[in-house]
Hints:
The chain is an alpha+beta fold. It contains 5 helices and 20 strands. The strands form 3 sheets. A 6-stranded antiparallel barrel has the order 2-11-14-13-12-15. Strands 3-10-8-5 form a 4-stranded antiparallel β-sheet, with no helix packed on it. A hairpin with a 2-residue loop joins strand 17 and strand 18 (about 325-335). Helix 3 runs antiparallel to helix 4 (about 145-170). The longest helix is centred in the N-terminal third of the chain and has 33 residues, at about 1-35.
Amino acid sequence: MKMKTFKNILLFAFAVSLITACSKKEETTTEESKKFVMSDTMYNTSTFADATTEDAQNEIRLFGKVTAENNNMAQVFPAVGGSVLSIKAELGDYVKQGQLLASIQSSEVAGYQSQTSDADANVSIAERNLQSIEDMYEGKLASEKELVMAKKELDKARAEKERMTEVNKIYRLKSGSVYNMYAPISGYVVAKDISPNEMLSNNRDEAVFTIAKLDNVWVLANVNESDLATIKQTQDVSIQTIAYPEKKIVGKIDKIFNVIDPQTRAAKALIKVSNSDGLLKPEMNATVTVHYSENVKHITVPSASIIFDKNKNFVMVYKTKDNIETREVTVYRALDDKTYLSGGLKEGEKVIVKGNLLIYDAIND
């Protein structure tokens, strides 16, 4: 009886060990079957990037507006006072140099015409008088003093005629009482302060037209006092406008004005921008992002490679198609295109950029 019991115990132990071995084999087979392997299609549609070591970059956002270049802008003032007869250019119009902008009827123009006629007549009178004095001088009937005085009167009359000729040339005055204003340069009318039938004064402080070339424009950004120590000339900037949020505009800070606006408590930074397509208009609001280096080295990866989940940051480290690791990383600073890390990744390790979220879900679900 004891021998039979012993055999039964041995048989039971063998059976248990056999079942355990089979169970472990099934678990191993199941784990192996769950191991993620990147397919060829997924590999071809994914993108990868090597972790590099770079100086960490930082950004400061400034706000400002677009304005015309001072050197490519001209203001038009009325040379005479009078009543506005007609206006030939409106705000936003493109005008060519010499194009008629407006016409004014002015009594002052009539006065200039009268002065011009008088100058012409005075020259003729002075010439005849000199000729008469010269004849009399040769006949001993006039003194040398009278001859000198006649020559001076002619010189004076000719100088006045020349002056009036220049006045008419500068103001483009013609016969009658109409004064025409013309565009001094080719460009866009960016400001207009004139209306039909308006009575204009010849000593007004504001221009009636402002014309600007817009092939190149300025962006003036406000720099707060707290940022003045950081913002420098030649720093790279990117500019965005509300009108064209997708348009990529890049440039450099050309100048920082050493004046603080008492109202805004800010200085101005100037960025010159090419505007060959004419999309940027004066007075447009602009957001200026200033990029600068902190001169501190950090591991750098594309920002698109970072996965934020469960209040942590991860990257998918690629080694082979069947060896992809989910790696937690510590972010030092994240910018639009680059993220700087302070831990979790080494230089040269390859991370998945495009397709990383899909692979993360497949491995970690």
